[in-house]
Amino acid sequence: MDARLAARRLLVNGIVQGVGFRPFVYQLALRHGLKGEVANTSEGVLIDIEGAPERLDAFEAELVSRTPPLARITEVRATEREPRGAAGFRIVESRRGASMETLIPPDVAVCEDCLAELFDPRDRRFRYPFINCTNCGPRYTIIEDIPYDRPKTSMRDFAMCPACRAEYEHPADRRFHAQPNACPACGPRLALHNAAGDPVAAADPVAAAAALLREGAILAVKGLGGFHLAVDAFDPEAVARLRARKRREEKPLAVMSPDLAAVRTYAFVTEEEARLLSAPERPIVLLRKRPAGPLAAGVAPRNRWVGVLLPYTPLHHLLLAEGFPALVMTSGNLSEEPIAAGNEEALARLSGIADAFLLHDRGIVRRCDDSVVRRVAGKTRVVRRARGYVPRPVFLARRLPPLLAVGAELKNTVCLVKGDRAFLSPHIGDLENLATYEAFCETIAHLERILDIRPEILACDLHPDYLSTRWAEEQRGLLLRRVQHHHAHVAACMAEHGLTGPVIGIACDGTGYGPDGTVWGGEVLAADAARFERLAHFACVPMPGGAAAIREPWRMAVSHLQAAYGSGFSRLDLPVLSETGEERVRVAAAMAAGGVNAPLTSSLGRLFDAVAAILGLRRRVAFEGQAAMELEMEAAEGVEEAYDTEWEEGEPRRILPAPLVRAVVEDLLRGRPAAEISARFHNGLVRLFVRLCRRIREERGLARVVLSGGVFQNARLLEGLLRGLAAAGFAVYSHEQVPANDGGIALGQALVAASRN
Q1: pLDDT band at 74 (very low <50, low <70, confident <90, very high)
Q2: All domains in the chain, ordered by first residue
Q3: Could you tell me which of 46, 50, 41, 38 has the C-alpha nearest to residue 92?
């Protein structure tokens, strides 16, 4: 054996399976004249390689610097070995080890190479709706276990034909070991069914489905992680029918267009937003609507923004190529239920909504809704984290014990932690019905299996009535740790940014259970990963009617007006009072004054609701956060004036909303436009929090501020605070990778639960 030969074993971890990594290693080894083998294992990709030492060094450097497009290397562990005199370089069978360390790749949009073949009449996959390669297609939603090989996916039901098998086995082919590889001769098939679930004879199911859409029909379309409900986005009657059948009164509907040129006919698109729309993740991107664009008004009523995405499956491309500039593509479910995933499930659950079903026979192992993102203050902010991003981990500043955090009630996600990696689940939904609860249980079981995590600690919210809390309390053999809602919000942002030590945490949302039995939601905390102290909060007011006050913001208007003006508030000449009716106002005021079905709340979200109702924007809401959203959109640009705010000294300080409410009312009665009042209200909150943080810095020496909670989805408030706090010399941290709302709270629960002694 050549005395100059050296040998190394490299264990590569990260997103390195299902992304063409082994053929990349194979080609790289051949280029450097090296010998050995590469295999997928549960611990990662294992490379045994030998050759001249300088060639091994060059190989190892390029291994990290020239990875395939979808690969993400997080670790390379190298050990020296004795050369074995390998005859060549080969790709060997996958191996399962003692523990799983490799990362599961997310689903990604169809690549340009596959698209070129899809629309090439000379290609054997011409118009084949399931075309894919190692650089694109389904991953997370078809995986049942790892190592990621075809028998461990829902593609195991499709035996490859000789042509596909030849591609799959040839290391130089773009489809080498592409587990979903298939063609019209051997792969999944598309079929059109009517509303009753019966097959519809169609030579081309896509063309037949497009004809139905042109006639105004509602089409259920099976995608990567579940079903969409589709209609022509330029057809007002079809959009109205979809809303009525889906029971989605006013919440905006997502729109899919074939390309950026089509999007620009109805929305403004910046360079950064165009990049997001075209990225492999293909999220829904919130874009500003053009005032007189061709979209049906019912797509996003009373909203300056519209959620837009570009096609990410071959089927989407084929459907939009039938001449549609825009299709509504909203989640295939009834409002508040999880997205439908299986064919039989969709036929049963969507039968009262869809006029036809475009089905296929490739199974969806794990349902996964579309992700939603927005550009705010020069950063991409994830609003809903799901397809394209899950199960990519959030990397933590330190290693934690195996742990499961089960999130809150609204916008539920769960989080599994292993070492320095936190895996947030896809968006599950609001845990308010059996279907969502079952999806919650399925998600936990699936993630524990594919990530090979056996939790030792279980974290949940303090609220005793959340279904997630009840589930956690029923588990046995785990250390259960309850985490306060707003501490978890702050900790989630700390975890995302790798922060340790104490911070000022501003946690503002609609509802969170406080240790004192009140409903928190407007909190200023001193917090680290293990503990928190409540330094300030909005003074509590009653919520007359309890949960009804969330659905009917006029109730919060009555409560705040009564707190600001006393019993004489009812004599104010305000539309919210006259339109609600004297008797209903009197009853709500009596409930608030007497504490009858009127829990106390410090919620800033509820204050937003009250101001929106006082200004006449929204007395009732059709979805959570609607009133606050419309108050934000109402705010005028270029207004610098701000309402003054006050607080009472104490431990904790009490921020007084009454002066803000009185300023809003007085300006409204003077005839000042609602747009100016909204702007002054937002500016007043910014000024308040900056003043408070300055005072806390003087007292505590804390100079880092963390912003978290659903209120910080408000772009105007977030941008104002980021500017104001930075100008005051603070280091400010806000959410980017995970949602500021309750969709990110499980990450914070995990960090807090692991940090307590």
Answers
A1: confident
A2: 6-91 (3.30.70.100), 190-360 (3.90.870.40), 374-497+740-750 (3.30.420.360), 536-733 (3.30.420.40)
A3: 38
